[in-house]
Specification:
The chain has 448 residues and is mainly alpha-helical. The chain contains 16 helices and no strands.
């Protein structure tokens, strides 16, 4: 029993998730680089189009993604039939959500025109938007399929599928965008979009092949539990919808924050983009720890060992702390080196303005790490409504209202926004910590 909640087991569950996230980041970076080499006009359309498509689909991915918590608890309780039922009902829900996504996409694409975009930019944005929407349909299905493997603590399968599909995406990018190996040159938008669509489709096919593994079919009776289960569907909607809304709103708030910073000038926006990019890469291992913790917590609660949650949290925080020590040293000793990776023009202004942002980020990562780990525990236990409420309300103050006052009205330097975000991470940590200590999550039963 102790081995299941040890640091070693957390690391074992975590590292495949982290590697999968890194492979996605690398694929996205190379994809964007290829598009920019093909056409700057197409590159300008890629970011807004992909952001809009991702934001819309995130609510459906969030709902379906809660299936991993359900599978984890059923697995801990050794209720293998329900593990299989959750898998199939997640897939059924994914198909419905994919159809909804396709139906609403024409109306959603009109946002580009409302933003005043026109001409070639509008044409490229709409083309890429629709390609990413169709890709997102397969990503929703992949989420439903990956839930099963994550829930049964087999995170190596999502790693294999993720890395394989990302490598395929990179290869197809090269072939389609630049017209290699006899393929016609499709350009950045069409080439990148088709590559993403095909790689996501191939990812789904790989999952379907892997769930046909003989041992899995026998142990979980995968093809004897295909029936639509209204109770499971309602559970996914009840607990997953708040999680999906949280993701949707979070993405929207961050986009608005960048727009506010952008109003203050290109220099501030460039510095902010560099700082956020470095922060996002650094926080990936922390997010991996959070996901691993949520899976192990689900297993233990399902097995009736709720008392082990405190020990799991402790080990997760130790692992997060060790990683934070490394980040604090890296961000404070070598900030100029990190910034230079993205500062292609070697601008002294960008270096001067971004260094304080990086150093402040190293502090907020401590609060954010603890918040991410506790938040994942709360969500895995089904306390998703509370998480949705605080992530819908509090970020509005710190991501929208205060940055607008600081940047636009008062015209203060950008590091004041970073101090604002530092206070935000501490405030969010305080809220989730109080919620965890009060123990409301102990009374929520998602498996019965």
């Amino acid at each position: 029993m102790q081995n299941k909640i040890s640091l070693k087991n957390i690391v074992k569950t975590t590292y495949p998730i982290i590697l999968s996230m890194f492979s996605l980041n690398i694929m996205t970076f190379i994809d964007r680089a290829f598009v920019s080499k093909s056409s700057l006009a197409e590159f300008a359309a890629v970011v807004p189009a992909s952001n809009l498509a991702t934001t819309i689909s995130s609510i459906f991915i969030g709902i379906v993604g809660f299936g991993a918590a359900l599978v984890a608890q059923y697995y801990g309780a050794e209720n293998y039939d329900n593990c299989a039922k959750t898998l199939w009902n997640s897939i059924y829900l994914s198909i419905v959500f994919s159809l909804i996504l396709i139906i609403i996409s024409p109306a959603a694409s009109s946002i580009f025109e409302l933003m005043g975009h026109h001409g070639l930019l509008l044409k490229y944005e709409k083309q890429f938007f629709y390609l990413i929407i169709f890709s997102s349909c397969f990503q929703i299905l992949s989420t439903g399929l990956s839930n099963f493997f994550k829930g049964i603590n087999n995170t190596k399968v999502p790693l294999f599928v993720g890395v394989t599909s990302n490598i395929i995406n990179i290869v197809l990018d090269y072939v389609f965008i630049f017209g290699k190996f006899g393929c016609p040159k499709l350009g950045g938008i069409l080439g990148s979009g088709l590559s993403t669509l095909l790689s996501c489709f191939i990812g789904v096919l790989i999952y379907l092949v892997l769930i046909n593994e003989k041992a899995l079919k026998y142990k979980y009776k995968l093809f004897s539990n295909l029936k639509l289960d209204k109770t499971l569907i309602l559970k996914l909607l009840h607990f997953g919808l708040p999680s999906g809304i949280q993701t949707f709103v979070g993405t929207g708030y961050f986009t608005l924050l960048l727009l506010i910073i952008g109003k203050t000038g290109e220099l501030n926006l460039s510095c902010a983009n560099i700082a956020f990019t470095i922060e996002s890469i650094s926080v990936l291992p922390v997010q991996g720890i959070g996901i691993a913790i949520s899976i192990i917590v689900g297993n233990e609660i399902g097995a009736g060992r709720i008392h082990n949650v405190q020990k799991i949290l402790k080990n997760g925080l130790i692992l997060g702390f060790l990683f934070n020590v490394f980040l604090i040293l890296l961000f404070n000793i070598f900030p100029d080196t990190l910034i230079s990776i993205f500062n292609s023009g070697n601008s002294k202004e960008i270096l001067t303005y971004t260094i304080p942002l990086i150093k402040i980020t190293s502090i907020w990562l401590i609060f954010d790490t603890t918040q991410i780990i506790i938040s994942n525990i709360l969500k895995s236990t089904g306390d998703t409504v509370f998480m949705m409420i605080i992530f819908m309300t509090v970020p509005f103050i710190f991501y929208i209202a205060l940055p607008y006052i600081l940047c636009v009205i008062l015209s203060l330097k950008l590091y004041w926004v970073w101090i604002d975000l530092l206070i935000f991470t501490f405030f969010m940590l305080t809220l989730v910590s109080i919620r965890f200590v009060k123990g409301k999550w102990k009374t929520i039963n998602i498996a019965n």
